[in-house]
Amino acid sequence: MNRQKLKREAKAWVEEGIISDEQYDKIIERYSKSGPNSIILLFAILLMALGFLTFIMSDWAREPHLSRIVILASVTTVLYVLGDIRYRKSADLIAISFIVLGYIAFGAGMLLAIDIYNIQVTFAWPFIIWAVVGLGVYFIYEHKLLFSVAIAVTTIGQLYNASINSAFSWVLLFLLLLGFGHFVYHHRNYLFSYLFSISFVVQLLTLVFAASQQYYWLILYFLILYVAGDLIREQVYRKPFKIISLLAIFIFGMYQTFILQDEFYMDNLTLQWSFIIVWFVLFGAAIAIKIIDNRSYQLIDFVLFLPIAFIPFSYGMSLIVLFIFSLVWLFIGYKQDNSEYILIGTISFLVSVFTVYIQFAWDALNKSLFFLIGGILLFLISFLIEKQRRTIVDKQKGGE
Predict the structure, then answer these.
(1) Residues 6+ positions from 318 with CB-CB distance below 8 Å
(2) Which of 207, 203, 305 is nearest to 253 (CA)?
(3) Contacts by residues 265-271 (CB-CB < 8 Å, ≥ 24 positions apart)
(4) Is the pLDDT of residue 189 over 50?
(5) CA-wise closest residue to 226 among 255, 195, 248, 208
(6) How far is 66 from 64, CA to CA, in rounded Å?
(7) 3-class DSSP state of 92
(8) Exposure winner among 117, 136, 221, 286, fewest CB in 10 A?
């Protein structure tokens, strides 16, 4: 069955009220399972993409000569044409593979031309063009692999611009929010929501360092993503937004436990009242949303979003916050007999323990002993997580 035709038909069924959004997701998921051949094709795409990118970095390719550009332009055209012809006959992964490789070859050719003719790239315009083309190609063919590659180009372009030009591209961020966000909203796909959330986190992380902002602005940016997840009712958006934001702020909390020990860093840390004002308003709104939606038990999430760098004993509090988050979720999970909450609490608690271990054992222990104990601790964490996973699976089977 042609999956693209099925998607179009199923969307029409949703609009006509024949099926619900949940039924639409289940129908598409049922016909989206890929076999071993799909994995082989994905690896083929990856290897050939690496081949294109390696080619543009080779000494032969970077010599100023029009023939190099003509070769890549010809390869791009051939791949696009082959992919389009195949797609019109059968919209399968082989057709999409050719189109994806053509898209990658297009970007590689553009980067090669820039390098050969020593064109100055003072901002991220090559990646902006590459990302816009990616959006256009996805609009035509609507395949999740094209979306994934295009949003990866957007994210990598932001990182490249920050590392080379020490600048942040607002255009790439707007492309993410308005361009990719449009498809995320209308296509109701968990993968799209996760990729969008990850790209948002990475881009805002880039903004903090490229714009030399104080590190605590990340708290506000991650909170924005979390609140967005709370405001959107549909689970296909809510769950990815909240999971990625919580994962990001938890890793931020772990990082914070290290920098709060650095006296030199802390001496140069200044409080910006603009941050406090915006954070206070958003934090208050987030709490109000939880209470209105009768989800007060989730208020524990906000302990991770507290700007503790400006309170006394901030280093100790940064560790305590991680443990409070973990233990409360464990308590809620066991009280509500919710396996997912128990898993969140267990993993975060074990990671918190490992963070404390690194904090205190690195200087106190012999380095070989440190790594030995660390390895044993990781084995223990892996064992407990696997045990918890099996418990969840057994409960789910028992419920069925």
Answers:
(1) 253, 256, 257, 260, 308
(2) 305
(3) 266/309, 269/214, 269/309, 270/214, 271/310
(4) yes
(5) 248
(6) 7
(7) coil
(8) 117
Phi and psi at 233, nearest 5°, equal -75, -30
Is this prediction's pTM over 0.90? no
pLDDT band at 177; cut points 50, 70, 90: very high
Q: Output phi, psi for 235, to 5 deg.
A: -65, -30
Percent of the chain's residues with pLDDT above 90 = 24
Two tokens, residue 236: 């296909």
Structure tokens at 391: 């418990």
DSSP string, 215-271: TTHHHHHHHHHHHHHHH--SHHHHHHHHHHHHHHHHHHHHHHHHHTT-HHHHHT---
Structural contact between residues 254 and 351, judged by C-beta atoms closer than 8 angstroms: yes
CB atoms near residue 138 (< 10 Å): 24
Give Cα separations from 375 to 318, 378, 380, 387 (angstroms). Answer: 24, 5, 9, 18
351: amino acid identity, one letter: V
Residue 1 has pLDDT above 50, yes or no: no
pLDDT of residue 187: 87
